[in-house]
Amino acid sequence: MGRSSWPLMVLGLVLWSGAAAGIQPVKSLFTSLDLSQCDVLAEGRETKGRVCAGLPGYPVFVAEGHGETFLSVGPDAHKRQAARQTLRAHNTVFDKSRRGTVEWRFVVRNQQPVPYATIVRYFTEGADGGTGEVLVVTRVTDRETCHVAYVDALANADAIVLARKLADTVARRASCAADPVVQGAAGRSPM
Q1: Mean pLDDT value of segment 159-175
Q2: How far apart are CA 161 and CA 70, in angstroms?
Q3: I need a labelling partner for 173 at 20 to 30 A (CA). Which of 11, 141, 144, 149 fits?
Q4: Which residues pair with 99 in a beta bridge?
């Protein structure tokens, strides 16, 4: 199965299962990041990162270096603001198996998913060696992608619930001119 067909198959399965159960339309979809399945993006002689499959029309750009990870989505994702944003603490979006996950929050228009936000778990390490997990909520439009909120996944019992609420409210109306803000309890995870 081709790398680009996998997200479509998952989307079809998720939408079909929701319709079959007679429930509200699906608002989340998960795609995996496996760098071995991504294309290297190069400009001139320098490698700038990798482009991975995401939702149709919304590829995922990932770059790592010096203990930092940069992740952006959308057309020309490597040129969007999120491609230059990361946490202050050393971080990665990849777990021990070297795979990451992007949760897409979306609406359906013309039978196609149109994302308005993503949620990605960053694994962090502070200068003192302390480790943590931070959910990064990103605003997504057809023209821009940027971080809007950070949730300390260890300090908040229902961190993913809070992150989804922020994605569905803050990310849909936030301006990319504003700095991302920490939401909920904090202090357990280096950010």
Answers
A1: 96
A2: 24
A3: 11
A4: 34
> 90: which strand partners?
125
- Per the CB < 8 A criterion, the answer to whether 106 and 55 are in contact is yes
Does any domain span residue 93? Answer: yes
User: Which tens digit of pLDDT belongs to each residue from 24-45?
Assistant: 465 899 999 999 999 998 665 5
Question: Which two structure tokens, joined as six digits, stand for 46?
Answer: 């320098």
* β-bridge pairing 181-183 and 99-109: unpaired
Per-residue pLDDT, 69: 95
* Whole-number Å distance between alpha carbons of 113 and 67: 33
DSSP sequence for 50-80:
EEEEEETTEEEEEEEETTEEEEEESTTGGGS
Q: What is the pTM of this model?
A: 0.85
At residue 116, the 3 state secondary structure works out as strand
Q: Is residue 161 part of a domain?
A: yes
Structure-token pair, residue 20: 């079959």
Residue 131: domain span: 5-183
Residue 19 — φ and ψ, nearest 5°? -65, -40
Is 191 among the domain residues?
no
